Amino acid sequence: MSDTYTPQDQQHQPAHRAALAAIFGAQRTERLALRRLRADDGAAMFAIHGDPATYRHKPSSVSPSLADSEETLRAWLRQWEAEGFGYWAITLAGAQEIIGFGGVRRMVWRDRDIANIYYRYMPRAWGHGYAPEMARRAVALARAHLPRLPVVARVGGVNPASQRVAERAGLPRRADLDDDEYLIYALGWDA
Hints:
By secondary structure, the chain is of the alpha+beta class. The protein has helices at 9-12, 14-24, 42-49, 66-83, 130-145, 160-168, and strands at 26-28, 32-36, 87-92, 98-109, 112-121, 151-156, 182-187.
């Protein structure tokens, strides 16, 4: 059995999903613990995604309620079940409090399956280098275990901090893929 992902694997390879879940389900970096989401992460998700400060560059994306955050959480949990990987809950190593959410999940963008990289942290976690630390691990895992999926960061043009995270994660700028809403950073995207 190969430990690399193809979109067909999500429907035909339960053992493959389990292998990916074992790889992606619990990771550590020098300072962070990256774990699979749990059903009881809704309150932490709303604390971060419902905080207008975390969406100062895109206020329309603030989660309006705990119920909305829990709905998003359920969708992300279903993706973990279907594919064996997805966004993580992020804590400091040895701590329980969730300081952010991020990682990679498969999505369709421009009619192609991609590994979309995402990072969102509570404001007091900003400025410590946690986002690029997590993003580097996510990119490395995606390239090693999901090589057929381009890794793509879609970053708001008015968010220089997020742009720096994508760059520090090793994603080259792809101005040829930009659109009206996002600047694109990508690895493995062939024309």
